[in-house]
Amino acid sequence: MPLLKIHRAAEFIELLRARLPERTFKHSLSVAQTMLGMAEQAGIDPGKAVTAGLLHDYCKDLDPTTLLERAEDYGIPITEAQRAHPSALIHGPLAAEEARRKLGVEDPEIHEAIYWHTTGKPGLGRLGQALYVADFCEPTRSKSQAAEARRILAEEGFEPALLYVTREKAAHVRAKGAAEPITEAFLEWVNAEFGS
Ligand SMILES: [Fe+2]
Ligand SMILES: [Fe+2]
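^ inputs. structure came back:
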């Protein structure tokens, strides 16, 4: 199914084009397309998949101060790690909130998926899991780990791909010295739920 057949996709794409740097715009389209492609395999609704994929980095262009201020204005709870790294860790929660308040995207699954797309969280629903995987492996990502995730998705299926991506992301965050309780908790949950 083409992306533009999805309800409101054309409207969201124009919003993103006007707002995001070229690279993030292309990445957002690619995440949406990847989610649409994996909808059946992952067992998710194609419309929700595209909406979550398109809007997940809607606030990625904002500077750290604005991210923090707006998150506080909306009453989003802010952790110590988020305060230390607003660009990495607040753009998801803020995009979920702005999608709801400014664009009328009220679906709780989409909200959860966008909110937690950077770190994951224990108990994250299937749409959120799919966004977490697509964000990592969409084809404009050129790292070898992204290619490996695409291979696993194609050859072994969604859950092995989720396991791989979660382990890779946790290892990457640890290597940067930015280990974060929620990332570790998500890894533990994914291992318990889907690991063998
Ligand atoms: Fe993001
Ligand atoms: Fe992203």
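The chain has one domain: 3-194. The longest helix spans residues 22-42.
thumbs up if we can close this ticket
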